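Hi R.,

Here's the chain you asked about this morning:
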Amino acid sequence: MNNYLKHTPVKILSKTWESPDTVTFKVDWQVQHDPGQFVNISIPGKGESPISFCSWNPDYCEFNVRVVGNVTEAISELEPGGTMHVRGPYGRGYPMRCFKGNHLLFIGGGCGVAPLKGIIEYVQHHREDFEGADLYFGYRSRDDILFKHLLDAWKSEFFLHVTIDRDAGEFQYSCPTGFVTEAIKHAQIDPNGKIVFLCGPPVMMDKTIPLLLEKGFHEDQLWVSAERHMKCCTGKCGHCMINGKYACKDGPVFRYDEIKGVTE
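And here is the predicted structure, written out as tokens:
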């Protein structure tokens, strides 16, 4: 069997529920990949689902799974000590080596923060290559905030701004109420020497990109994760085509000028 299509059994090391419908798995798998790439996780008898890496570490991998259907629900029922079947990595990730010397701006919404976490960890492993980083993350409520255990560390190392759409939830973390797009609108951000990473709901990206362009960012400074309902992950089935490009093979990471106007 072609290794590109082969399922690899990996041991689950830990399982952490980040929110009521989102769980992170840490697995014993040492594989080279770029931030922004993804794998297909398979459940025999159920199917498989494309899931992005949410880590960058040579010793293990992490995947954040949002429960939205039968397959992801079955994945969420796996337990530490058990086996997860993956195939990949697939797709084009963020070309981090091209961004050396720049200040990085992360803008994420909801489960879109998970792939950005992989970039953050890459930066932490290559801290001398970048000028710094600003993190703007938005969630529906405090209960929906991902990676709560990392917030203090991120806040001590980077500029971190977390917003919630509504003032509800159990987590005792000071968050202004409002959309992350409003935070970007009112932020004093100099576009010079900056690269922007966007990942989140289409409506969030559609509203954020014009705000960044108004602030003087150029389209080639913006990098978006344009995920689609991917099936084969090899560019054969055509489910994820965007303006002649396949999200699974040519993306899911695109420079904005490559798919301008098609983030939904």
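One quick note: The chain has a mean pLDDT of 90.

Cheers,
M.
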